[in-house]
Amino acid sequence: VNHNPANAGEEVARFLGQAGRYPFVNVLETPITATVETLSHRGECVNFLSNSFLGLCDHPAIIGAMHRSLEQYGAGAGSARLVSTQGVHVELEQAIAKFKGRESAIAFSTGMLANLGVIPALASSPMYHLVRKMDRELAKKLFPTTTVLIDKFDHACIYDGAALAEHNLWGGPQAKVVRYNHLDMIDLRQKLQEDLEESERIGVPRARIIITDGVFSIHGRLAPLDKIVQMAREFDAIVYVDDAHGTGVLGTTGRGTAELFGVDAEIDVPLGTLSKAFGIAGGFVAGSENFCDYLRTSRTYMFQTAMPPVCASGLVEAIKLVDSESWRRKAVLENADRVRRAVESIGLSTLGSAHHIIPILIGDEQSANSIAQELNEAGVLVGCIMYPAVPQGEAILRCNMMATHSEDNLDRLITNLEHQCRRHGTI
Ligand SMILES: Cc1ncc(COP(=O)(O)O)c(C=O)c1O
Question: pTM for the whole thing?
Answer without folding.
Answer: 0.96
